[in-house]
């Protein structure tokens, strides 16, 4: 047996014995736990998003953050998103200010685990490359140039963030009130509703005059109450026309993220050859149907979208495309898109498999509740 134990397959018996641990007996070794400084990254809010714009920070440097609390509002191509934290800590340093643009995955702020780490985190943000904070006119740089150098004493761990979409142009937050256009971040609108602050009476300090959360908080402290909560005012005989904001001639105003996406798509659409065919048709049956279901909220746009989908079923060649210049590709699905104008941009919701929608009401609800 001893001969077998000394072979190359099994170690010798003495090597299987546990090595004694040095140190005083009966006293456990103290484990030193170091606090972490986490990087807050620009989240990817969609599969096509390459960069994001900081609309507003809902927290200031030094403020405590709780798990699940909103910390920043990010603007993507089509919507503003409230970004929440999955970690407790302190917002130690903001690396991309409001109105700045940063590529997806780059650091936009630092989150300290304890209050004692705030000073160290600020020092790291100041020593990091300025490429982590992009201005609107600059192009995004590579992710490696954005990540700040971190010594081994305080390892940086990525923070997990959960983007929470906020609908743009919904009925909950109307685009205008009393004839005056209101441009405010979704978080500012939500905060104004909670604090009962009248957004019409506020002047935004955010990018391009946008109302941000800080404006609402300042108005709440000053006692600006919403019009529905205040005493009713006597009706004026004449309603003054809204005054357009003064813009100096020759001023270059950069695109918002949404306007940039719309511009790119419009330019790309010019490369697609198009032609139009016009016919005069009788719509008596369509008009009769519209009168019957109009009271239920169905619009003519929804009816035309459904009619278009049914027409493409009968004429699939219209739903085909020429990709290589030598053949036709017949699409396997029929998708209908309808352009919808909202404040400061344009979105195009797409109804997948429109020909398979059996009931008109869900079709109308899809386009006008989205």
Automatic annotation (TrEMBL):
Enzyme Commission number(s) of this protein: 2.3.1.-
Record bears the keyword Transcription: no
Listed cofactors: (R)-lipoate
UniProt name for this protein: Dihydrolipoamide acetyltransferase component of pyruvate dehydrogenase complex
Family of the protein in this entry: Belongs to the 2-oxoacid dehydrogenase family.
Stretches with biased composition (Low complexity): 124-134
Keywords carried by this UniProt record: Acyltransferase, Lipoyl, Transferase, Transit peptide
Renumbered residue ranges of the record's region Disordered: 121-148
Domain Lipoyl-binding: 37-112
One of the record's GO molecular function terms: acyltransferase activity
Entries under Pfam families matching the protein: 2-oxoacid_dh, Biotin_lipoyl, E3_binding
GO biological process: pyruvate decarboxylation to acetyl-CoA
The species this protein was found in: Theobroma cacao
Matches recorded under Gene3D superfamilies: 2.40.50.100, Chloramphenicol acetyltransferase-like domain, E3-binding domain
Keyword Transferase tagged: yes
């Amino acid at each position: 047996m001893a001969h077998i134990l000394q072979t190359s397959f099994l170690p010798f018996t003495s090597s299987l014995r546990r090595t004694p641990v040095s140190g005083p007996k009966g006293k456990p070794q103290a484990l030193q736990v170091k606090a972490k400084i986490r990087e807050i990254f620009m989240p990817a809010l969609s599969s096509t998003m390459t960069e994001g714009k900081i609309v507003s920070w809902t927290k200031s440097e030094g403020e405590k953050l709780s798990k699940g609390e909103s910390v920043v509002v990010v603007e993507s191509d089509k919507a503003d998103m409230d970004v929440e934290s999955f970690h407790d800590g302190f917002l130690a340093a903001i690396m991309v200010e409001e109105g700045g643009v940063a590529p997806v995955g780059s650091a936009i702020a630092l989150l300290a685990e304890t209050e004692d780490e705030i000073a160290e985190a600020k020092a790291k943000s100041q020593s990091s490359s300025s490429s982590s904070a992009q201005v609107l006119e600059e192009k995004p740089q590579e992710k490696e140039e954005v990540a700040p150098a971190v010594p081994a004493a305080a390892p940086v761990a990525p923070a997990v963030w959960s983007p929470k979409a906020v609908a743009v142009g919904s009925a909950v937050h109307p685009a205008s009130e009393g004839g005056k256009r209101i441009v405010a971040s979704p978080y500012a609108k939500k905060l104004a509703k909670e604090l009962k602050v009248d957004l019409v009476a506020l002047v935004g300090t955010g990018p391009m005059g946008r109302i941000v959360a800080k404006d609402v908080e300042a108005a709440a402290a000053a006692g600006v109450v919403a019009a529905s909560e205040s005493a009713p005012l006597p009706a004026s005989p004449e309603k003054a026309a809204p005054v357009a904001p003064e813009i100096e001639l020759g001023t270059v105003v950069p695109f918002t993220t949404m306007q940039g996406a719309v511009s790119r798509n419009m330019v790309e659409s010019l490369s697609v050859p198009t032609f139009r065919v016009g016919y005069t048709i009788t719509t008596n049956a369509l008009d009769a149907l519209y009168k019957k279901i109009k009271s239920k909220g169905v619009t003519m746009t929804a009816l035309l979208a459904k009619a278009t989908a049914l027409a493409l079923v009968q004429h699939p060649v219209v739903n085909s495309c020429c990709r290589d210049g030598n053949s036709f590709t017949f699409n396997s699905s029929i998708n209908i898109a309808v352009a919808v104008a909202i404040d400061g941009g344009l979105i195009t919701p797409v109804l997948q498999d429109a020909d398979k929608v059996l009931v008109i009401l869900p079709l109308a609800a899809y386009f006008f509740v989205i």
